[in-house]
Design brief:
Two copies of one chain form a homodimer.
Chain A lengths: L10 H24 L4 E6 L6 H11 L5 E4 L6 H4 L5 H4 L8 E4 L3 H11 L4 H20 L3 E8 L2 H13 L9 H8 L1 H14 L7 E5 L3 H29 L14 H8 L9 H24 L4 E7 L5 H9 L7 E5 L5 H4 L5 H4 L8 E5 L8 H5 L4 H21 L2 E8 L2 H13 L9 H8 L1 H15 L6 E5 L3 H21 L6
Parallel strand pairs in A: 1-3, 1-4, 2-3, 4-5, 6-8, 6-9, 7-8, 9-10
Helix pairs in contact in A: 1-10, 5-6, 5-9, 6-17, 11-20, 12-21, 13-21
């Protein structure tokens, strides 16, 4: 491949084309504000290929009020204390904005690869994670444009040399740039692999030649304009084809085995208060030790509580947290999303709440709302809740890969027991705040919920994060079983090596 | 002071009282959810006085779904890279919740004092900052309950000894606990000073004896119940007495000199395109160097752009940011607060956006909305915007104390020039998105705004963060003056030592 290193686009031609592009870009931004969706323009490539220059040129053409630029220097300690993808979730552009990514998940991947030649298996794992993340963005109507700045070895060397020679630019050349030049061949092969593995519908790669800076700038601006236009068309077509969100319709099971499991659950447990108290105290003590051990081992714990209304989530959480130092623990009641949260993918609000290493988060309802209430009430479209099962599994995989311990409970009561509890709540003064019309409305949809819960259990119970079905007609029995299950799962996870090791 | 170290409250009496208190506390939580305001229960005291125990006991009595516990171990790198109070702003309880503070701003203060006997002046400065913060919370209807756990020296020593002797509790004794025992006398004197200086209406100290744990727990629970009851009464009284938010009424100046300054500003500047371009490029180059120097010196820069509608903020920001690496810079357009932001003090949304050391934030409109649009439109009560001047000054003081460089612009145009620009926007296709009915409505309130702007300039121009009035009838002149001013102010700040040193 004989590539010319000299610019092929004259300054004159460039200067003539820029004003036109700028006008088009600003029009794009106005349209985007009214659309609105998000645009992620990801610029990847080896260090020293001028990604920063490119981003700065693009930014100077755009209205800065609709642009956010992201780069990823070394992770901070807060970032290292959470799953890998957390630092990318916490920095996403607002609705109607363009995110310019001078660094990205690809930077991290290449950086790690440059430092130590990784086992291929590990790299593949990371690329799968990136694929999941980008697919999730694309599915959420985000426009993802991926540019790989390519320079052949000689051009890369020449650029570094030119920058180094001029005292005004020498400071921009980093050790990393030079290292990438030294191991150029290996990284170039890895780059090809990365692109191949992360090429998928809606997130394909555009390889742009980086040696001619002016041509590069124009090419990328044009890719942005074209990408925007075709994305709008695609969304318009989709809007016609998509089945809209559908409120109350008879539900059909995706997988019957979950509901069968649920229905087979025995609910007629007996447990005397005295036996309960003795066992409870024993397990509380053991749980307290287990949580402390997890804290010492820098492992975070994520408890998920799902269950029928009045199944006793509040009481169970209260007993559970009594064994945990409140300074290391947060209970997160999950209600309707805020308007800020609505501007992001539905998982964003949960990523925000992911505990740091060593800490405990108790989710009182959770991300499973997507396949329960949102499915039932038609708050999202069928295609959205249907793909959520995979997204939820990927999400929890991120957590457990990082070393978090995920313990999920479904608290199960019978229809009759729920009725008894609702009535008791209505009749007891200090319990009245716990019941409202919505609870009764949800109860009327029991059959539909049962199907949704069954599907959830069948489709999101994974080896790393299985569902624990807790029979809860007997409150004492349920609380005890939750303490036991929590305790045993933490102990088991601590015995196993964390996935990071 | 002969104090008994033995518990004075029998276990039997304690066990009898706890259930009653618990019932009352849960009722308090239900009432709080419906109120709603926030409750901060701050537990301070030397290390090793059992603050954690107390917080855990309280937490076990409360419904964990309405409780958030905060403690402050060593600051993370992200926290150290921002002003001192940032880490406290980022962790505040939600509306209707109780925040239990096992650690707090007092922990930091005592910790620093224990490590190195600080100059009194420095301590006083820190206490003033704490006073400002708590006053701001109280003014915002937050219930602040401050408990200082007191133990005399012998009791403190005995507690550490008891804990150390038992292998089950020995791990809880830290080096810090022991150090506080060693320098008990000095810290006890500092504690008294801290309490004295931070005692103020709505945030007074309750000194609770810590040696008898049971009595301590009950005392604090009762303080919480009493505090809650009297706070509700106070709010009810206030609600009657407060003048409600008042929409459009003729404004009266608080300080006439600000408006005089504004009116005296000459607006008839001339600048040829050619001279402009030459000078612009010179200043852009110099600015670029200054910003890079600030980055290298780990100083953050906060630009504030305020001005009349159509004064040219967008264009000026665009020129300014073209000199800055987009990866180190964020433009933050300030519009209506989100519903999440509305649940906090109005300054919270800006604290969220404070850049890390070395980075640049450009606020396109800002916290000054409080004394401009919110005052004019009656979005807040008169007592609220009146005290905002002080709060805004305190806020910026936090930034500059930390070493941030704050540069504030008021872009000023004449009424006639605004009219010309509005009309031109309406007539030019690609500018139409820049003008709407609200702009015309605001224009009709010019006189009122002029008064509000005048007051703002007179009351919030401080030596560390002065206002720069930019005559902007001539766009070129305005842009150039902004570049110059930005540049000179950054250079000046870099010559001066950062306040931290």
């Amino acid at each position: 491949m004989a590539k010319k290193l000299r610019p092929q686009l004259s300054k004159k031609d460039y200067d003539a084309r820029v004003p036109v592009l700028r006008e088009q870009l600003v029009q794009l931004q106005v349209a985007l504000k009214n659309a609105p969706f998000k645009v992620l323009l990801i610029v990847a490539g080896l260090e020293g290929t001028g990604r920063g220059d490119l981003i700065n040129s693009l930014a100077s053409w755009l209205d800065p009020r609709g642009v956010e630029a992201f780069s990823y220097p070394e992770a901070t300690d807060e970032e290292r204390a959470r799953p890998f993808m957390w630092r990318f979730w916490r920095q996403l552009p607002d609705m109607g904005n363009i995110g310019l990514y001078a660094g990205s998940w690809y930077t991290e991947t290449l950086r790690a690869e440059a430092r130590s030649r990784k086992a291929l298996a590990h790299l593949e794992h990371e690329l799968a994670r990136i694929r999941h993340f980008e697919r999730l963005l694309v599915d959420n109507d985000t426009l993802v444009i991926k540019i790989w700045i390519h320079m052949d070895k000689a051009a890369h060397r020449a650029r570094i040399k030119t920058l180094s020679a001029d005292p005004r630019t020498a400071w921009r050349v980093t050790e990393e740039d030079k290292r990438h030049q030294r191991i150029y061949d290996r990284l170039d092969r890895t780059s090809a692999l990365i692109r191949e593995r992360t090429n998928q519908p809606g997130a394909t790669w555009h390889v742009v030649e980086g040696a001619d800076e002016r041509a590069r700038n124009l090419a990328v601006a044009e890719l942005l304009l074209e990408g925007f236009a075709s994305h709008r068309e695609r969304l318009a077509t989709l809007a016609k084809r998509r089945r809209p969100a559908q409120p109350p319709a008879p539900l059909r099971s995706l997988r019957a085995d979950g509901r069968r499991l649920l229905r087979a659950l025995p609910l007629d447990h007996k447990l005397s208060p005295k036996t309960y108290e003795a066992k409870r105290d024993k397990w509380l003590g053991r749980l307290s030790l287990a949580v402390r051990a997890a804290h010492a081992a820098n492992r975070s714990i994520v408890f998920v509580f799902e269950g029928w209304d009045a199944a006793g989530k509040g009481g169970a959480i209260r007993r559970l947290t009594s064994a945990i130092d409140v300074r290391n623990c947060r209970v997160i009641p999950v209600g309707k999303p805020t308007d800020e949260e609505k501007n992001f993918h539905y998982l964003w609000r949960f990523w925000r709440q992911i505990p740091r290493d060593g800490l405990v988060a108790v989710f009182d309802r959770s991300w499973y709302g997507r396949v329960l209430v949102e499915r039932l009430e038609g708050f999202c479209r069928p295609d959205e809740w249907k793909r959520a099962y995979r997204e939820l599994n990927d999400f929890e995989q991120e957590l457990t890969d990082h070393g978090s311990i995920v313990v999920k409970f479904w608290m199960h009561i019978s229809r009759e027991e729920q009725l008894r509890r609702f009535k008791s709540r209505e009749e007891t003064a200090y319990k009245q705040h716990k019941i409202n019309d919505e609870d009764w409305r949800n109860r009327a949809k029991w059959d539909g919920y049962e199907i949704a819960v069954g599907d959830m259990i069948a489709l999101t119970g994974t080896p790393a994060a299985p569902w624990h079905l807790i029979p809860a007609d007997n409150k004492r029995h349920a609380r005890l079983q939750i303490l036991k299950t929590a305790c045993k799962n933490i102990e088991k996870a601590l015995r196993q090596k964390s996935a990071k090791e």
